[in-house]
Amino acid sequence: MNSDGIKTFIMLSKLKNFTRTAERMYVAQSTVTNRIAELENETGQKLFVRRQGGVELTEEGQLFLSYALRINDLEESFIQEVNSAARYEKQLRVGCINAVYESSLFPLLSRFFSDNQDVSLKVVLGHSADLLQMLQDSIIDVAFSYLPFKKAGFTSRRFSQDRLLLLASPAANAFRGGIRKQELASCEYLMCNFAFGDAGEFVRSLFPPRHAFRFEVDNSGKVIEYLLAGLDYSFLPAKMAERELKEGKLEAIRPLDFAVPELISYCAFRRGNALAEALLAGK
């Protein structure tokens, strides 16, 4: 099972077309076909099924994809670590959810980067569960997430605390006196899975089960752009919107019949990681 086969499988799972995959990877279509056939022989499973206009992952292919992504990440992490080690004495790989990066982590990272000239710093943005998996796989050294990490050999600390605010632009805000849960459920809501755990469950609980949101984005930093454009409502961490609230470009809407939980982030790293301790010491 070689890296070219893994990369080809991942690309085909995204593009769902042999021809486009071959073009994107600058190889012949027969090469893509042969690489996938080799993977299927090695795994003993059919990974793709042909559909009109392309292919789709089988159930076994979906399962293999999660492993393929991790294998690819591990390989790239190893290559980067070896190259970095040749130039820098030390390195620190930090994974962070976007909301915490934008509201709390940037000052800490910039100070650490400035104060440690012999350390290479790599920052990866992602979702909580993915980052914790990357931490376990040693792809990153430190994970900042909304999920506490309770695993032997790791240290997990509370990192930051914030408030969730329901926000809208003054032009779009129809609830200056406050909003009830039933009213929110009937609004056009900009859904962002920026939070997991208690906060994420809270946002989902405000809407009917299996509610179909007309708008969804997986990067909390992008939601503000839509709110500023006068498009509907969304919950965001207060620290992310401090400037817009101060300038009057956004307004916070008071909940009338429901309570909003605290937004707590955590920092996790392997015990004994001196660079992680040094990073947090600058807080």
Keywords:
283 residues, alpha/beta, seven-stranded mixed β-sheet, 11 helices, 11 strands, 22% strand
SSE order and pairing:
Layout: H1 3-15, H2 18-25, H3 29-43, E1 48-51, E2 54-57, H4 59-87, E3 90-96, H5 98-115, E4 119-125, H6 128-136, E5 142-145, E6 154-168, H7 181-185, E7 190-192, H8 198-205, E8 215-217, H9 220-228, E9 234-237, H10 242-246, E10 251-253, E11 262-270, H11 274-281
Parallel strand pairs: 3-4, 3-5, 7-8
Antiparallel strand pairs: 1-2, 5-11, 6-9, 6-10, 6-11
Domain HTH lysR-type: 1-58
Keywords: DNA-binding, Transcription, Transcription regulation
InterPro entries: LysR_HTH_N, LysR_subst-bd, WH-like_DNA-bd_sf, WH_DNA-bd_sf
Q: What is the rounded distance between the termini?
A: 44 Å
Q: Which quaternary structure do these chains form?
A: single chain
Largest sheet geometry: 7 strands, mixed
**Coarse shape:** globular
Uncertain regions spanning at least 5 consecutive residues? none
